[in-house]
Amino acid sequence: MGYTARHCCCGGLSPMRLRHIEIFQAIMQTGSVSGAAQLLHISQPAVTKALQHAELQLGFALFQRVKGKLVATEEAKTLEPEVAQVFEALRRVQQLAQNLRQPLERPLRLLVIPTLAQYLLPQVVPLWHQRSRQPLSIATQHSREIVQKLVLQEADIGITFHPVAHPNLLMKPLLQGTLRVIASPGQWTEQELQQPCSLASLAGQKLIGFDSHDPMSGLLNSHLQQLQPPPQIQTRVQNYQLACALVEAGQGLAIVDPFTLMGSPLPSRALEPRISITLYAMSRAEEADQPGMQLLLECLTRVVKPALACTL
């Protein structure tokens, strides 16, 4: 493998082919010709021949044998990050092609942000199966991953709070609710529970915060920064279920969306002034009107609507 570079000429060299990239990546992953052959389901001589051809075209060695083992050359180490990106892009193309070949009777593939999954789905799924014979496949993902899987046709519909601008995707607002403040049981009197919780009353209070990437965090920060003294945010979390658990443990108040509170025993009060949050359905624009998707959204709306202060 190291000797091939010495036999190639300096001119007329060709770039790596896709097969060369597969062989190179497999050897980098497994560390041997035999391992690469097993990974790619081809013979060891085929791997050796393809590697020699790649080195001949490149004009330099990719691996050297050291004490019976293949060791990547400095050139190979430099190539590896770029080759990895090409290999990943190739994998995505193959996955997209496979998805396009899938039959029409495949399950309706639903992606939901983790915040909504725990309380919404146990109520939506039975209603769906009462009204449809189509199988339903469900997974939880964050908004960025939902966009990626929709574009790659690895999912059919996504439910999120975060509106995303993408030329191939359609964002449909479903329902709108207002943010609520939650506290541990017994912290508020019965009279207080009947009244909104003013933003001003949170000044100086212990408050569970959210990760800066959370869409609701951006809604709240501008309001909370105006309070004097500001709330004491000593803990930040990435999901609302964890925030509810910390509130129940007496670690402070939290401001959450009304969807999260479905099924939660924690006392809550409407935040005043009211701050709205919208639930969106995301799908590929050309498939948004498919009957299965519309039926799923009807089931979702039927479950969620009674829990909200207002709807779109």
UniProtKB/TrEMBL annotation:
Similarity annotation: Belongs to the LysR transcriptional regulatory family.
Keyword DNA-binding: yes
Designated name of the protein: LysR family transcriptional regulator
GO molecular function, one term: sequence-specific DNA binding
This protein's record includes keyword Transcription regulation: yes
Top-level taxon of the source organism: Bacteria
Keywords for the protein's UniProt record, in alphabetical order: DNA-binding, Transcription, Transcription regulation
Source species of the chain: Proteobacteria bacterium 228
Chain segments annotated as transmembrane: none
GO terms of biological process kind: lysine biosynthetic process via diaminopimelate; positive regulation of gene expression
Domain HTH lysR-type: 16-73
